[in-house]
Amino acid sequence: MSFSAPSMENGFSSPRNDSFPAGLRVLVVDDDPTWLKILEKMLKKCSYEVTTCGLAREALKLLRERKDGYDIVISDVNMPDMDGFKLLEHVGLEMDLPVLMMSVDGETSRVMKGVQHGACDYLLKPIRMKELRNIWQHVFRKKIHEIRDIESHDSYDGIQISRNGSDLSDDGHMFCGEDLAYGKKRKDFENKHDDIGDHSSTKKHRVVWSVDLHQKFVKAVNQIGFDKVGPKKILDLMNVPWLTRENVASHLQKYRLYLSRLQKENDLKASFGGIKLSDLPSKDPAGSFGLQSSINVNQNDVPNGSYQFSGDNFFAQDVDTKNHEGDLKRVVSETTETKRTLTADLPDPQDMRSSQMSFDHSFGSLDSEVNFSAIPAPYSWSEAPKIQFKDEIKPLLQLEDGFSQLPLSGLHNHIQIDPLQSASSITSGLSMTGREICGPAKIKPLYAQYCSNHVSLLSPKESAFDSFPVQSKSHVEKHQSFEPISTAISSMKPQGFNLSCITDFESCQRNLISATDSTFEPFNEDLRVCWLEGDCHSMNFGLPNVEFTDYTDAGFIAEFPIYFCDTLTSDTECPFDQPEYSIVDQGLFLS
Amino acid sequence: MEVGQMQRRLAEYTKSLFMEGILDAQFLQLQQLQDESNPDFVVEVVTLFFDDSEKLLNDIARALDQQCVDFKKIDAHVHQLKGSSSSVGAQRVKNACVAFRNFCEEQNAEGSLRCLQQVKQEYNLVKNKLETLFRLEQQIVAAGGSVPMIESSF
Gene3D superfamilies recorded for this chain (chain B) (predicted)? Predict the structure, then answer.
């Protein structure tokens, strides 16, 4: 498949291309003239191109007039002519631009509302320069996702999806796509019209099935009764005004597929302890439902909005052609120069190497190897998930599980894999791991991301299940690696969830994945470390005006990228890491 | 008074404003945003703040004066005032707004009136202080000196 990045081109129009994020076109909407002036000045200092607007309606007008004229919108929540949340919805629906909300009011409920309405971030006034400096990440992330989507759509058109996995796609690329967009393929296969037409045209607004949204969905499904369920009924129960029947229908389809895969998997895992997700003692398919509902239960632990994964994007990550990688890397390297803040205390070179081994191959090769049967490892999910999930993670994990087992395994996989011999077993099941890796690679610590990323992991391939054993085996081992992360995560919690962190991670993860398979392990480590450093400026809503000191000299300095380069098999990966980290860096601050 | 003396006086004066909680770190941010391309940035922003605030205070006073007090509207105004006072670092004004909003929520007219007085008081205080500060700066510049940047310890 040829990698064409029209969205990239459109999005990164000339001024931005060479010096991204400089020249980022920002539209600021705020009825307070004082703030408007200050923000304008601050954004200009970040070398962004600023347009200010005092009224929401005016802003919408501007946006509609120049559909591709802006990259990101920052809007105040309280405005006289239109509720900021409304504006947010409009922008999201019509223009699909990232929107940041701001307010002097940092009440959790407000923030949550913002996130629910689709805000990429919620900034508390007074806003610091550092917070504004990093807003470009939201733009970047969206671009990445769009590219992935386009890619997956292109590749999936007309792909025969074989549920039994025996009929893998023709080329490696397809295969990857399949892994990623398992749901998509399914959709293509069964539901010709759905997205494809839309996607093949210019970027269309995609429904982002956030954790919160998905929970509503699941709740509705459970309420109706899985057998009697239908998109219309679900839609009515969910009571989400902007959601369409079509959105629900496609999501339901994916969900059904996921569940039936779970079912199948459960059959496979007769010998296994069953998947134990943190406090989910599930062993049977029914467990998945339990999972689903548990998502609802644990919702409180995690901010809803943090787990963004669009239905269509689920598998976007996996769809990663070389070209794509190349492009990403290119883009990434552009940003690399500017951001070099992350440092990682790379824990275990050992781990990295071994993990790299497994992750070495690109997605493309996934199709062939699957011979998991060769790997007799017992498939025990129980441990891995447990390790990983602390309170906040749990819901995520569950959510993921709601979609597919794979992600979990992937997750574990990649965490676990490190040093073990599982590496060897993994390599034999290369394709699988590769696939898995894609998914989980991203998120070791961040389940939220994991969820979002992993949704993509829901590879439809039945064979994927086979690989589970491999996965699980690998996971089982590395408990340790999780601990620090868990700690990181749990320590994060009291800070008030840093949504931006999550999204950052998400993007980091995704980017990493696409850029390179082999960076998983190190990446995770880095992520973990990253969390601990840097400022947490963005989502401080739990902590009014808390200023986080810069950690740049905390000693975490950027050795890790170099480290990675050494251990990584491919050089290209290194540059990629940095930008990700900087994003993470900014996002997470654990004091 | 020679320039050095004036600069020291300005520094101490500014410092006192922070110590007394009249201004907070945001004001420093504003100062840091000022540069050659915008040499009067802080003054401009603060002027905007003054204009906006006075309008808001008048609106609030008028609303409280009504037969039937619209607390929602007042709350909206106070929220706005809170926002703009936070933009320049007028900490005490902002805090007074927070208290004010509580009374609005309770639909307490008397409490609201008192709060309004409080907010007005704090606003006038910060206005005076800032005007003095700007005057000091002007004097320094007029005498050929430059206005020193306050060290940020925030």
Answer: HPT domain (1.20.120.160)
